[in-house]
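== Protein entry: sequence and backbone fold ==
=== Local backbone shapes as whole numbers ===
==== Amino acids and backbone structure tokens ====
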Amino acid sequence: MRLLAIVTDRFEDLEAIGTIALLRRAGIEVDLAGASDQLMVSGSFHTSVKTDIALSKVDIFHYDGLFLPGGAHTKALREQKEVLGIVSAFYEQQKWLMAICAAPSILGVLGILDGVSYTCFPGMEEFMPLGKKQAAAAVVDGKIITGAGAGAVHEFAFAIIEALLGVQKSEEIKQRIIYRAYE
């Protein structure tokens, strides 16, 4: 499995890096693309990250899905035609779409969440008025996986791992990181 993640400056650090780290632990390849072909991007909390590929060089046929972390960068992504074109292409090719926090709004402006169960950061519902908002850390509806926010990174990543690689792999990763082992 190979995923593409799109970021630009002011991405939510934990949502991007935490999710990608957990996915990579599970053996899922994740390439990070700078939305404006940036070689380096900086998170909302000043974490600098080197991107793997320029968005203009992305060939969606090399990927099984798309991951969109949330954060303040989401507004810029929603307004960038190239990003919206890539999201639409992934959707049209029936590939996995994963978005957390404010990022489901990108799917929402394209109508992708119409009639679909989803979760997001409170207040982002305005971008998906025809979707079915759920009060949950992570929601899977077909090939669309959404997460509520930074506090739901583990649940979101485990939902992705389970959907892509199965329950056994998700449980294996939970054990390896001692996820809630002391509750």
In short: The longest strand covers residues 2-7. The chain has six helices and eleven strands. The first helix runs from residue 13 to 25. The helical segments are 13-25, 74-78, 81-92, 104-109, 153-165, 167-176.
